[in-house]
Amino acid sequence: MPPLPEAAAARLSALGNQMRTLSDTFVGYPCSQDFSYPEIIPLLGYAINNVGDPFGESIYRENTFALEREVVAFFQQHLRAPAEQTWGYMTSGGTEGNLYGLYLAREIHPDGIIYYSEHTHYSAAKLVRVLGARSIMIRGQDNGEIDYEDLRETIRIHRDAPPIILANIGTTMHGAVDNLTTIRAMLKDMAISRSYIHADAALSGMLLPWVDDPQPFGFDAGVDSIAVSGHKFIGSPMPCGVVLAGRRHVDRVARSVEYVGCMDTTIAGSRNAVTPVILWSAIQRWGADGFRERMGRCLEMADYAIAAFARHGIKAWRHPNSITVVFPRPRDSVIRNWQIAPSGDIAHIITMPHVTRTMIDRVVAETAGLTQQQP
Amino acid sequence: MPPLPEAAAARLSALGNQMRTLSDTFVGYPCSQDFSYPEIIPLLGYAINNVGDPFGESIYRENTFALEREVVAFFQQHLRAPAEQTWGYMTSGGTEGNLYGLYLAREIHPDGIIYYSEHTHYSAAKLVRVLGARSIMIRGQDNGEIDYEDLRETIRIHRDAPPIILANIGTTMHGAVDNLTTIRAMLKDMAISRSYIHADAALSGMLLPWVDDPQPFGFDAGVDSIAVSGHKFIGSPMPCGVVLAGRRHVDRVARSVEYVGCMDTTIAGSRNAVTPVILWSAIQRWGADGFRERMGRCLEMADYAIAAFARHGIKAWRHPNSITVVFPRPRDSVIRNWQIAPSGDIAHIITMPHVTRTMIDRVVAETAGLTQQQP
Fold first, then answer.
1. Domain B40-283, second-level architecture
2. Cβ contact (<8 Å) for A121 and B49?
């Protein structure tokens, strides 16, 4: 391969420096940044590719299926998914996972209506549109949870159509968890026999397994499929995720694809074979105990942030078991300086493992107008 | 971060060795393996993420949008896409690109019918199903091109529905290029005023720009959108791709998503920010002249393979400007040993830049039954 021209190398070097600088102000997004995976470097010399079903046998043998299967097994265990009744694969991120879950739901209930709250991630509207599915957006509560009464009334009006619930296990802005017990009771109460629950658990799907008293969130709480990000709590230099679904749902799609001659159970064909190594390594390094301890530190830091805001008379809060600290929208310079995603009159910082007290102190001081720092 | 346990490090080391061994027999898939991108390593320590539209301004500033835009510009130039009339982004691979093109087409023509030949990549049936679109599979010719008469007759029967053509610019098995001039003349001949052509140019989209006399393949040949892989001819340790589409088509989708409060023009939300650096580096290293020379060597190697097969009385062939060498399906041991994807009674080797004469000689000898080698 020809060498990288000097000017190009200089640009990449500058880009690296820019990322290092920016990493000091990375408090607004739910992505961990306390990682280092030198063990992946030797694999970057090969055209590795996890094309197709990780539980199949691929002719394309330059793959990391074996590690991917172990990652799926770890997620099955901690999302309380019975291994023999569920199946999963590693996605390019949360969007592919949510598309997969909703795709299965739409295939099972072609006449179904997808319900999701207004606090659902902005990609939901796009996915519903890609699928060409019927959908109704439900009012959200101020705390970020879905408005259960609005959900109940809306489903009641459309009792002829199977409800497909896109539940949030950690909303984007509030870190709120839709109550799966309430939702299932509601469906039972209306004698609805055909339904589907997909959980968007991008962030909280890897938080709730590590707390003592989690809200209902996994397969034991009745979800049919669940999508979790890998680059959020665990941390990865590139987006990735895991989607799990009931095996009986996946078989339905897989069967019909067999008809055209192959078992093509994933949305993407060619799939990243490096990210399974990253998540596998992280699991090996941390283990469940390490993740639990790590989550404890994140919760402590979230409480530290709330107290720091309070000392300046700024009301900040978080949901139980959430590390998303919601506070009133600060002025634009704070948003820009600290890569904070606002929504209407609120904003949040998320105390991912790399977020320090010093970073929080600086954000709070700037928000309180004590400094005009330009990091 | 806790250290990688010794047993885990040993497994990864074994995996690396396994990949090195397998790379000696990697002749069946269209992925280059002659790359090395050490320049990406410093970026692997950050939670970089190209979330959203690369031409927008993101609050998430740990991104590589600037390089992604230059990659898109390079593809625009060589796929003959006028920069001011087209738009593009980097995908997780060919499937996302094809989904994107067909999604735009279905949005523009909700009553349209998607036509694709039986030689189209197996993912087409899945994508059509995800989109919930009407589709008809068209007969293929033995050489891999679509059967133009069957296409014409089928469209004629459904003249009330706008045709959405999924054209192959390089079929998976034969490397065949559907004739865009013929297809467009057919539509004109039938006085069809509403139509859409999406080109799946996964491999050949980065081959045809480098030959002297390419088949029609780009926007100058009338495509509305085109998907090309980045990990195929250019080469990358993880799948990636570029999709380009007419700006007027994208605006339609973007507008409607603005309604829910954001410009969300890509299918995936969070997107890999490392792969843009990889393609950008490769472009800097090779340049158009380098790619042209590289393609010349691949074509020579394809002809070498055809001659080598011929010396053993085995009929092998390739399409003009294709490096996919088609030959009769060999016995299973050859398929397994050389990671060769068969289809019915044919198979292929693809003379990607890393494929050597020695590798070809060995495949040919094994196919001819001269050896029983187990690599």
1. 3-Layer(aba) Sandwich (3.40)
2. no
Q: Flag whether residue B107 sits within 8 Å of chain A, measured between CB atoms.
A: yes
Q: How far is B122 from chain A (nearest CA, A)?
A: 7
Q: Which of B236, B322, B333, B343 is catalytic?
A: B322
Residue type, A154: T
Q: Which of A31, A37, A44 should one mutate to test binding to chain B, selecting the residue with the greatest count of B CBs within 10 A?
A: A44
Please give the class, per CATH, of domain B6-36+287-367. Answer: alpha beta
Rounded distance between C-alpha atoms, residue B6 and residue B11, angstroms: 9
For position A259, what pLDDT does the model report?
45
Q: What residue of A is the nearest CA neighbor of B337?
A: A59
| Binary contact (A41, B41; C-beta < 8 A) | yes
Q: Which of B120, B270, B271 to mutate to test the interface with A (most CBs of A within 10 A)?
A: B270
Query: Which residues of chain A make contact with B69, given a CB cutoff of 8 A?
Result: none
Entry pTM: 0.96
Q: Report whether B31 contacts B94 (CB < 8 A).
A: no
Please spell the DSSP secondary structure of B94-118, one letter per residue. Answer: HHHHHHHHHHHHHHH-TT-EEEEET
Is B36 close to A45, i.e. CB distance below 8 A?
yes
> In this structure, how many other beta carbons lie within 10 angstroms of the beta carbon of residue B209?
22
- Provide the residue ranges of all domains of chain A, joining segments of one domain with +: 6-36+287-367, 40-283
User: CB of B286 within 8 Å of any CB in chain A?
Assistant: yes
- Percent of chain B at pLDDT exceeding 70: 97
Kindly report, residue by residue over B325-365, the tens digit of the pLDDT.
Answer: 999 999 999 999 999 988 889 999 999 999 999 999 999 99
| pLDDT for residue A370 is more than 90 | no
Domains B6-36+287-367 and B40-283 share a fold: no
Instruction: Determine the Cα–Cα distance for residues B361 and B371; give it in Å rounded to an integer.
Output: 11
Candidates A209, A216, A222; CA nearest to A165 is A222
Q: Is the per-residue pLDDT at A59 higher than 90?
A: no
**Tell me: the pLDDT tens digits for B100-147?**
999 999 999 999 999 999 999 988 999 999 999 999 999 999 999 999
- Our CA-based measurement puts residue A205 at a distance from the nearest CA of chain B, in whole angstroms, of 17
3-class SS string, B324-353: EEEEECCCHHHHHHCCCCCECCEEEEECCC
Q: Inter-chain contact A47–B231, Cβ cutoff 8 Å?
A: yes
CA distance A79 to chain B (A): 23
Helix (H, G, I), strand (E, B) or coil at B177: strand
Q: Which helix (H) or strand (E) holds B137?
A: strand B134-138
Active site residue B322: yes
Structure tokens at B313: 């009385």
Q: Of B86, B69, B79, which is closest to residue B210 (Cα–Cα)?
A: B79
Nearest residue to B93 via CA among B202, B245, B173, B207: B202
How far is the alpha carbon of B321 from chain A, nearest alpha carbon, in Å? 23
Question: Measured between beta carbons, which residues in chain A are less than 8 angstroms from residue B281?
Answer: 4, 8, 12
